[in-house]
Design a protein that fits this description.
alpha/beta, homodimer, 9-stranded mixed β-sheet, decarboxylase (chains A, B), 21 strands, diaminopimelate decarboxylase activity (chains A, B), EC 4.1.1.20 (chains A, B), lyase (chains A, B), Lyase, Ornithine Decarboxylase, Chain A, domain 1, TIM Barrel, pyridoxal phosphate (chains A, B)
């Protein structure tokens, strides 16, 4: 096998391998066979990979109950079942995510609810369903949630989302902890302290912790640690200003998500255990120095669990060589999906690893741009990759690490139906989502 | 009324006005009433506006048959019916767009089919349905289409898509006429001439014209003229190399789409008649100087027809003032939609005009960022607008000129259902697309 034929193991699903016939298999199932049966584009999920990352996170963070899988990365009832079975908790960020989780019978007490703009109806559903925690995001919401809980005769546990002013190094579009953003209460301005006081003063909600989120695609504990230190400072301020029976409720430090994954062979991979250990050590020390009991650290990984488990299989179509300068040619290789099933390259400049999956190739490599089939020149999946020059129409290629924010952000641009999704485990194939067709679009018409 | 209360008429639908009670109406229907009945976010289409822009285009370009509405901007059966009734032609760019057009009984002979990666099945459907033109985009496709037509015992009229190497000034992501892109055959390299020869040599396809596309959001004829001149040069080359019976078939110069619209009050608006006149004059002169009969100029506007007809109505939710520097505050105003129903601000940096639509306001204006309800800090609809400081939760706002590439590119991120779409005309409301719910997502699950 050439270097190109070898799947970078830190990027591809854990069970992905190249069979002796040259085909790539996941959980022992050939991607070519799956393409044949379900068509392309096709999302293929390695169920064991997904579950193993749940287990890694649970082990690193002291138990699954401390790890909230971030639904927004990718959610179906089956996925919610996997998360529940692995003993993890769940983070939802919209009314419909909550509805789906409840439709999957996910234990409500293990659900944390986010959102910068929760409607009264959404808050009502939260309390009625008895979700574990609602994360308060603005002052109005405190009074509204209190009123809803009063109306339902219940008490709702809450966290206050704090903007600690820390920004982990990441792409600007997906950084979330600096002050100039829509989420949370400012620590610096005193707004977060005030929110905590309001929550404590409200009769039908119980403040049990603080939440913050430092960014996306983070690979070390530094950003988390800095944020944790600041948020613990706030916790100390709250604890010392309150009677013991209130202060003692404040036991959760939720540090949000943002754990990175490797998208390309050159990317580093996350050492979850090391980051978690570093983070726990710093939190323990910080709490100690502030005279606080060590809080329970909670986290909300989405991408780090769902991302690496999934690949997207495409069929190669049109191939075109374009002279881009006097002595330079770029090959345009078109596949049968594109920005409708993966908006991340166009939206964030995201990069992916691509491999030929129906065979190996020892052809020389050529500078290739992988594009989709949409009527838009910005419909680019991979800006520049060295791919074997003998790839031809009908070959199958796959992009790895497409499990998070690809299907979840998929559109129907150019009336492309969302692809089918199948999961594989121990040689067994389980359809998860069927492909959308024109009938689905027509069904919405009046 | 304050300046903010006045709708910029070159941005808003032609029938949009502010009623004496302060509410904005379209075709005499109050947006507040529509929000009440159909919920928010809600797309509201001014049917007469859409139709009038079809008429303007038809008048400017010598008849509706020369104007192909670009489906990708926004397509439903109802929209296809409007386009057909106004006598326009239709441009589709995917198999599903074609299927939808056929489901709407759009006359196949008035359909032009685009695509950089058409499958054999797609080509088969084109020939079988007897579409007017297939636009050839790569060499392989010529032989494949010829084979499909032979198999069906039919002859298929085609255009050859040419890259003239002209790039109209526009946002990089949506510029499409330079050489380094996926669409078309290079003029400079001789590839386009060769494609024309191949098409002419094929037994079951007839070359009837040439196609090019210079970009998006173009407001003057300059780019079109330069491209037209170059493509006419190619046409002359083909015509003089072929016998008269072949040369005489070559009568169409399709200059594609790209006609701009005003998104904000400061944007210029397109003078369709002036651009068309300028373009026709240059084409006539160029053809004359090359000794060619003046070709029929065809165009493919999508945004310029669908864009200005539609507004998106949102309900205001959480409002938050954030200190972004010592003496500067930014107001974050959250609405109940966001990047799921309008990805263009995040994807292209697109700007929009926003107005309060359930009432007027004479409150002082304050620096406001309009954000969505998604769990992502990049979920920004309007980066900076001066909005009345008294806007409160429960108010209704609307973004104008959202008829193109908003619903068409909508996602279900955070499991948001696609919004409902209604059209209004002469005081009558017609539901066009119902809102998606969690049930629609569950229906896809195996």
């Amino acid at each position: 096998m050439t270097k190109f034929d070898v799947l970078p193991s830190h990027v591809w699903p854990r069970s992905a391998t190249r069979a002796t016939n040259g085909e790539v298999t996941i959980a022992g199932v050939s991607l070519a066979d799956l393409a044949q049966e379900f068509g392309t584009p096709l999302f293929v999920i390695d169920e064991a990979d997904f579950r193993s990352r749940c287990q890694d996170m649970a082990a690193a963070f002291g138990g699954g109950e401390n790890v909230h899988y971030a639904s927004k990365a990718f959610l179906t009832r089956k996925v919610a079942n996997w998360v529940a079975e692995e003993g993890l908790s769940l983070d939802v960020a919209s009314e419909n995510e909550l509805r789906l989780a409840l439709a999957a019978d996910f234990p409500a007490e293990r659900i944390t609810v986010h959102g910068n703009n929760k409607s009264d109806g959404f808050l009502h559903l939260c309390v009625e369903a008895q979700v574990g925690h609602v994360v308060l995001d603005n002052h109005d919401e405190i009074a509204r949630l209190d009123a809803v809980a009063a109306e339902l005769g219940q008490s709702q546990d809450v966290l206050v989302r704090v903007k600690p002013g820390v920004e982990a190094h990441t792409h600007e579009m997906i950084a979330t902890a600096h002050e100039d953003q829509k989420f949370g209460f400012s620590l610096a301005s005193g707004s977060a302290f005030q929110a905590a006081e309001e929550a404590i003063a409200a009769n039908n909600i119980r403040l049990v912790g603080l939440h913050c989120h430092v960014g996306s695609q983070v690979f070390d504990a530094q950003g988390f640690n800095m944020a944790a230190e600041r948020v613990l400072g706030l916790m100390e301020q709250i604890v010392t200003s309150q009677p013991a029976e209130v202060a003692n409720l404040l036991t959760i430090l939720d540090l949000g998500g943002g754990y990175g994954i490797a998208y390309t062979a050159n990317d580093e991979s996350l050492d979850v255990a090391a980051v978690a250990a570093d983070l726990h050590e710093k939190v323990t020390k910080s709490a100690e120095s502030l005279g606080l009991a060590t809080p329970t650290v909670m986290v909300e990984p989405g991408r780090a669990i769902a991302g690496p488990a999934t690949v997207t299989v495409y069929e190669v179509g049109a191939i075109k060589d374009v002279h881009i300068s006097d002595n330079e040619t770029r090959r345009y290789l078109a596949v049968d999906g594109g920005m409708s099933d993966n908006i991340r390259p166009a939206l964030y400049g995201a990069e992916y690893d691509i491999r030929l999956v129906n065979r190996t190739s020892d052809a020389k490599l050529t500078n290739t741009r992988v594009v989709g089939a949409h009527c838009e020149s910005g419909d680019i999946l991979i800006n520049a990759a060295d791919l074997p020059a003998d790839i031809h129409s009908g070959d199958l290629v796959a992009l790895a690490a497409t499990g998070a924010y690809c299907y979840a952000m998929a559109s129907n641009y150019n009336m492309f139906g969302k692809p089918a999704v199948v999961s594989v485990r121990d040689g067994v194939v389980s359809p998860m989502l069927r492909r959308q067709t024109v009938s689905d679009f027509l069904a919405l018409e009046a």
